[in-house]
Amino acid sequence: MQKLKLTEPIINKEIKEEVVVENESSEQETKELKKTKKETKMEKSKEMLVTDLPGVGAATAEKLATVGYNNLMSIAVATPGELIEATGASEASAKKMIIAARSNLDMGFESGADVLEKRNNITRISTGSNVFNTLMGGGFETGAITECFGEFGSGKTQIGHLLAVNCQKEDPSAVAVYIDTENTFRPERIIQLAKGAGLNPEQVLKNIKVARAYNSDHQMLLAEKVEDLIKKNGLNVKVVIIDSLIAHFRAEFIGRGTLSERQQKLNKHMHVLSKLAYMNNLCVYVTNQVMSKPDQFFGDPTAPIGGHIVAHASTFRIYLRKGKKGTRVAKLVDAPNLADGECNFAVEEQGLRDIE
Length: 356
Ligand code: GTP
Ligand code: MG
Hints:
Elements: H1 2-7, H2 10-23, H3 27-39, H4 58-66, H5 72-76, H6 80-87, H7 91-103, H8 112-119, E1 124-125, H9 130-135, E2 140-141, E3 145-150, H10 156-170, E4 174-180, H11 187-196, H12 201-206, E5 208-212, H13 216-231, E6 236-243, H14 247-252, H15 259-280, E7 283-288, E8 290-292, E9 302-304, H16 307-313, E10 316-322, E11 328-334, E12 341-348, E13 351-355
Parallel strand pairs: 3-7, 3-10, 4-5, 4-6, 6-7
Antiparallel strand pairs: 1-2, 8-9, 10-11, 11-12, 12-13
């Protein structure tokens, strides 16, 4: 990208700036100036509008915007299929839109320093337990997917409820989205945890948007709709909880013959979630079940469901299990920049309690 820029004359930049200023004045002028823009080899600019893409007129832009494609970045990272679905355009023109959007954005390499700067925007949502937060490098990261797997009653849903409450502690305007697939979301539990965190329970409940997913397609659709809550409704979504990520998929695709179809759908779902997390700097928390591995004689004979697709898409993986005297053990099994480790805590009415 840098090299491309160097080959362009510096004057182009000035032309572009004029274009942008005049863009606001009238539509006719915009059309004329578009040619100048093309001559300047469609210089990458953040100010370029969706309507400047090839084949995108006002009506198409409107269609795109209604489903959340209201900036170049969202189009640049879309698949042709998604744009065809949104606009009814042909595959060729959808591809053209994507290529044009990509060539106008800095989609290429960035320096390590830039990445570090981006990472400075990452916040961490507290679990309410010091030992658990320490294990997670300060809490559950935004911009990433964190997965918790473990047997029934290990505390996966409790952590989901805690995140929905605690994200509001730092930022009262923060909103949590709870996609509930097993009908285990309990407002009464939220009230207890909000009191425990010293927050106003009514306010906390208002800032949690709950949707019950009835099957895997519905679940996938709901995940896609979170973007609308952010873009259209202007909600400051900080955490998206999917509890459970896998239950519907597991129930609907039974038998070996259906496995590849299940994995394909799951892959698409995980892709939507990781894009959601990254583009909006929010925390995605998913829960996963375990299956027993009867052929394993040493160590823990349980493994998470979902195979390498879920494993790969999750940035952090936590294995939760029951410990002594009703306590819980969280083990960090996969994290890009943290050491693997374990911590102990107890689930109590007002939240988690550390056990040193
Ligand atoms: P599945 O969804 O069945 O796979 O389990 P899960 O991992 O989601 O378990 P969940 O988070 O629902 O944990 C339930 C457990 O949390 C209960 O068995 C209790 O031990 C504990 N728990 C839940 N609420 C309270 C509470 O108010 N007080 C106390 N002390 N413990 C609670
Ligand atoms: Mg649960």
